[in-house]
Structures are given as C-alpha cells and as structure tokens.
Amino acid sequence: MPKLTVDDLKKIKEEYKSTFTLREGGYRAKITVHMGTCGIAAGAREVMNALMDEMAKENIKDVIVTNSGCAGFCSREPMATVEMLNHAPVKYQLLNPEKIRRIFKEHVQGGKVVDEFALVAGSETSY
User: Fold this and answer.
1) pLDDT, tens digit, for every residue of 17-48?
2) Of 46, 70, 75, 90, which residue is the least packed, with the fewest Cβ within 10 Å?
3) What domains lie within the chain, and their CATH numbers?
4) Full-prediction pTM beyond 0.90?
C-alpha cells in the first residue's frame, strides 16, 4: 500500500467534511455554542437559551444547534461558531443573549457575517 501524502489527506478531509457536516438539501447551518467550564462561567447557558428561544419563536427546522467544550480562548467566552453551507465557519466571541439573537438574524437568516462580534473566520488545520 503506498504512503499517503499531504494532498491525499486534504482530499480525504474535504470528502469527509462534505458528507458529515452540512449536506445539500439538508441543514443549511450549524451553530456550536462552546460550553466548557469557562464558557458556562462566562454566560454560555444564557447564550444557548436565547438561541434556542429565537429558533423556536421563528419555527426554524433547518439549523443544527450543538455544543462543545472549550474552544481554547477562555478570555473570549462565551463563544459560538456558525457554519453555513459552502462558507467558511465564523467563530464569534464575548457573546450575550442580545448578540446571539443578532448573529442568528443577520448571519444565519440573512447570510451576512456580524464582523463586530467575530473573532476569526475559517477552519483550523494542522497542515
């Protein structure tokens, strides 16, 4: 069996991402609220509750909401990552219920990144 190259690994990663995350005809967005201990202490539960309330109020069914542990930027918590189909993920920082509602309306529903709350756009990679 031949050795895998970096290009081979990149191709495998892209194929996996395209089938695992947001699929054509399925969910159009995924929102991850980072809820490690630092995030919860900074208010991530309130951010998650506000997001879920907003989605229920708008009867949104095509957006995945999930949580994760610490994103590694404890001083920037609460944080959330928004992934839209065919767009780079955006990690938002220093959130509160009002900010996540605005991000939901402007970015998830409107397609426009809320630059003033964004920490970074794009994916981390080790190669």
Assistant:
1) 544 555 555 688 999 999 999 999 999 999 99
2) 75
3) 24-121 (3.40.30.10)
4) no
